[in-house]
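Box 3.1 A note on notation
Throughout this textbook, protein chains are presented in two layers. The first layer is the amino acid sequence; the second is a token string describing backbone geometry. Keep the layers aligned when reading.
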Amino acid sequence: MRKIISVDRNPPIQQVIDAQLIPIFIEMSKQSVFPQLQLEATWILTNVCSGSTSQCESVIDKGGIPIFMQLLI
């Protein structure tokens, strides 16, 4: 999914949101026991945040900010 959403032109950000995958990726981002999974999921969420304001808000509204903050520590 990370490779799909990382395309330069017209990334399918809205499709990821519409498929209600944001909560799943947020949960995966919490999985410190699986660092590669955590990295991939966080990368996807970051790419979603690179979209429009409302697309970014879909990550914020589902609790993405505390996870990003925790990963920075």
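Helices lie at 2-5, 13-18, 22-29, 35-49, 53-61, 64-72. The radius of gyration is 11 Å.
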